[in-house]
C-alpha cells in the first residue's frame, strides 16, 4: 500500500514539475509580443492635415486627399485626419485656430502639417506646443512672419524668392528674351519677399544685358475687383508686345493676373517662364480652355501632358513654362512624407537634404533645390527652408535650374 502511495506521489510531483517547466517557455513569446507592441505603437499614429477648401485652393485640398488616399483616414483605421479651415479664415481666425488646436486632443496625433500657413497658424502652433510638445509641427507657404513661426514650428517651408528672382530672369534670357517686364501693384510691392524678389529680378536683368520694365496694374482687391484687373491685362498685353517686342518675358505677382496674361502671350508672343506659385493648373486651364476629368485631377503627369499639348497647339512651345508639379500639392505630400519618416525613425533632426528628399518623392521626374532662410541680419534659421522646383518649359522639357548656381551677391540684395 505504501509503495502504491509513494508511486502516486512521485507521478503527481512529476506532473507538477513538468507543468512548472512549461510556464517558463512562453517567455520568448512574451518578449516577442512586447516588441510587437512597441512596433505597433510606432505604427499606430495619426497625422493632421490642415487645408483650405477647394474654392480657396484646389491644389491644397487635392493634396490633402492624395495623402489620405495613400495612408488612409484615421477614422477608418488609417493615419490621416483632415481639417478644412473656413473660406473666410481672415474673419474667422478664432475658429481656424481652435480647429488646428483640436487636433492635439487626439492622443495618437504625432504630427500636424499645415498646407498653407494662413494667419492664425502661429498662435495655433504656440497653443499646441504648450499642450502637446511631442507633436511635430510643419507648415508650408506661411503668410505670417516666417521667423516668428519658426520659433514654434519644427519645419517651415516657403518658395525661394531669392533664387527664383535670379533663375526666372536667367531662364528667360537663355530662351532668347532680351527684355523682362515685372507686373505688380503697390500692395504686393509692400511685402518684403515680393519687393526683394523684384529687386533681384531687376539686377539680374541688368547684369545679363536685358532691359528691365516695371509695369503697374490694378490691384484685384481694389474697387475694380478681379474682373477689372483681368480686363486690364487682357487689353494691355497686346499693346506691350507691340511696343516692346515678342522677345519680352513677363512675370506677374498676382494669381488673378496670370490667366489673362497667359492667354495673350499664347496669342501674340512673348515669354512666360513660370507663375508666382507655379503649377500646370495655374492660369493655363482658363487661358487655353482646358478641362480635366476626375481621374486626371491630382495626377500631375497627366495634367502636365494635357496642358503641354494645349500650349503647343496655341503656339507657345519653347516660350511658356511652369513647374511640373503644383507647389502647394507637392508641399503637402512632401511634408507628410517627412513626418512619416521622422515619426517611424524617432528622428527630429530636420535638415535641408531631408526636406528636399521628401519633396523629391512627391515629384517623380522633377528635382528640387533650396537653402536655409536667413533673417534680416543674415543669420540662418535652421528649421526654415527656401525651396524651388525645376522649371519646365512646354515643348522643351526641364531646364535644369536646380543645378544652376545662384551667385552669392543676389542673396544680399534687399537684406536690411
Automatic annotation (TrEMBL):
Pfam families: DUF3798 (PF12683). Gene3D superfamilies: 3.40.50.11390, 3.40.50.11400. InterPro entries: DUF3798 (IPR024258), Peripla_BP_I (IPR028082). Keywords: Signal. It comes from the Bacteria. Residues 1-19 form the signal peptide. This is DUF3798 domain-containing protein. It comes from Fusobacterium nucleatum subsp. polymorphum (Fusobacterium polymorphum).
Amino acid at each position: 500500500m505504501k509503495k502504491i502511495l509513494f508511486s502516486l506521489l512521485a507521478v503527481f510531483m512529476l506532473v507538477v514539475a513538468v507543468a512548472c517547466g512549461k510556464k517558463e517557455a512562453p517567455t520568448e513569446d512574451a518578449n516577442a509580443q512586447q516588441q510587437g507592441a512597441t512596433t505597433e505603437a510606432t505604427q499606430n499614429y495619426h497625422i493632421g492635415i490642415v487645408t483650405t477648401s477647394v474654392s480657396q485652393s484646389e491644389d491644397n485640398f487635392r493634396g490633402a486627399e492624395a495623402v489620405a488616399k495613400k495612408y488612409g483616414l484615421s477614422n477608418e483605421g488609417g493615419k490621416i485626419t483632415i481639417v478644412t479651415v473656413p473660406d473666410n479664415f481672415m474673419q474667422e481666425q478664432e475658429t481656424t485656430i481652435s480647429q488646428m488646436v483640436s487636433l492635439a486632443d487626439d492622443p495618437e496625433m504625432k504630427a500636424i502639417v499645415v498646407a498653407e500657413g494662413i494667419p492664425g497658424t502661429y498662435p495655433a502652433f504656440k497653443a499646441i506646443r504648450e499642450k502637446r510638445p511631442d507633436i511635430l509641427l510643419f507648415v508650408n507657404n506661411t503668410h505670417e512672419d516666417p521667423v516668428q513661426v519658426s520659433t514654434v514650428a519644427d519645419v517651415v517651408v516657403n518658395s525661394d524668392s531669392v533664387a527664383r528672382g535670379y533663375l526666372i530672369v536667367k531662364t528667360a534670357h537663355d530662351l532668347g528674351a532680351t527684355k523682362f517686364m515685372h507686373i505688380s501693384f503697390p500692395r504686393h510691392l509692400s511685402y518684403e519677399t515680393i519687393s526683394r524678389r523684384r529687386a533681384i529680378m531687376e539686377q539680374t536683368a541688368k547684369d545679363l544685358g536685358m532691359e528691365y520694365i516695371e509695369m503697374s496694374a490694378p490691384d484685384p482687391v481694389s474697387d475694380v475687383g478681379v474682373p477689372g484687373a483681368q480686363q486690364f491685362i487682357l487689353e494691355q498685353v497686346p499693346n506691350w508686345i507691340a511696343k516692346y517686342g515678342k522677345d519680352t518675358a513677363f512675370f506677374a505677382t498676382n494669381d488673378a493676373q496670370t490667366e489673362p496674361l497667359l492667354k495673350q502671350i499664347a496669342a501674340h508672343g512673348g515669354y512666360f517662364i513660370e507663375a508666382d506659385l507655379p503649377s500646370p493648373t495655374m492660369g493655363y486651364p482658363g487661358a487655353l480652355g482646358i478641362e480635366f476629368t476626375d481621374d486626371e485631377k491630382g495626377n500631375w503627369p497627366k495634367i502636365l501632358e494635357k496642358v503641354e499639348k494645349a500650349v503647343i497647339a496655341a503656339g507657345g512651345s519653347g516660350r511658356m513654362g511652369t513647374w511640373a508639379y503644383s507647389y502647394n500639392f507637392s508641399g503637402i505630400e512632401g511634408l507628410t512624407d517627412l513626418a512619416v519618416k521622422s515619426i517611424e525613425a524617432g528622428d527630429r533632426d530636420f535638415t535641408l537634404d531631408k526636406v528636399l528628399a521628401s519633396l523629391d518623392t512627391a515629384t517623380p521626374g522633377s528635382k528640387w533645390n533650396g537653402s536655409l532662410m536667413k533673417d534680416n541680419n543674415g543669420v540662418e534659421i535652421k528649421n526654415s527652408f527656401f525651396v524651388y522646383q525645376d522649371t519646365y518649359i512646354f515643348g522643351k522639357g526641364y531646364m535644369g535650374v536646380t543645378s544652376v548656381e545662384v551667385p552669392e551677391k543676389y542673396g544680399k540684395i534687399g537684406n536690411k
